[in-house]
């Protein structure tokens, strides 16, 4: 018997030859954990959800929920008998029922369960009280998405599957909904798998994050580790949160780059002295210092509200991102020189 809440063991998820994720193994240890799956469009993320929900069959491996085999080469529990709720990316509301009637389908599904969410509370949290009496064709895509989310939450499932649940929600409203959604899922211990294309959303919501690339689950780890300790160049390139620069290992805790000079820190993986490596450099790894004798040219500046991201050009024409807090008084313009603090020390050195 497994102690994990959900186990996926060596399952290939396939909707077609083009949309296939091979030999996936992952676990959700505890009830109430949230897993976010990230990957480019068309890679098979939705197929994973559909298969877990029972809408697709598997040829090999096992899917086990609460010690019960849902899918294997010999077993297939029908969707209606899995107590799994799936919220689709597109409008899945019944067109001939009002929003409130649609949402009540979720509440009525498991009305025998004593524990559950309050319909009025959910409607208020998701800001959909004002559309309760409208029909799906009378509301926006974002409102329809929130109504579908409310219906899924109120069904009180053992496992909730959400496919891009906030993709149609206005940006200025999305963060508030993310906070409320996490609050609901955590307080009620609703185990959830969320497919999203937004890494910030995944890092905020997820207890664990899975990166799906080239038909494989490339990395499955805590959000912090996925960001700071990516396990492959493919994951680095997909997350697009840093650059790779050439460097030479010069000691147990040091390496050398032609443009930046000596860089020290703790290597995540050991490399022999003299090794030629690709160093991951993220925006927060370098510090700004107007007094430094290491000056690089500013080629771009992005304002992010709480910070600026400067893009600097090195003498070898490589582009390096640097994070600077927005309260920093001296803002640098394009073509100006920008100082990098020396000596350069990075807490954890990630190389490939």
TrEMBL record:
<dbReference type="GO" id="GO:0005524">
    <property type="term" value="F:ATP binding"/>
</dbReference>
<dbReference type="InterPro" id="IPR027417">
    <property type="entry name" value="P-loop_NTPase"/>
</dbReference>
<dbReference type="GO" id="GO:0016887">
    <property type="term" value="F:ATP hydrolysis activity"/>
</dbReference>
<dbReference type="InterPro" id="IPR050093">
    <property type="entry name" value="ABC_SmlMolc_Importer"/>
</dbReference>
<protein>
    <submittedName>
        <fullName>Iron(III) ABC transporter</fullName>
    </submittedName>
</protein>
<keyword id="KW-0067">ATP-binding</keyword>
<keyword id="KW-0547">Nucleotide-binding</keyword>
<dbReference type="InterPro" id="IPR003593">
    <property type="entry name" value="AAA+_ATPase"/>
</dbReference>
<dbReference type="InterPro" id="IPR003439">
    <property type="entry name" value="ABC_transporter-like_ATP-bd"/>
</dbReference>
<feature type="domain" description="ABC transporter">
    <location>
        <begin position="6"/>
        <end position="239"/>
    </location>
</feature>
<dbReference type="InterPro" id="IPR017871">
    <property type="entry name" value="ABC_transporter-like_CS"/>
</dbReference>
<keyword id="KW-0813">Transport</keyword>
<dbReference type="Pfam" id="PF00005">
    <property type="entry name" value="ABC_tran"/>
</dbReference>
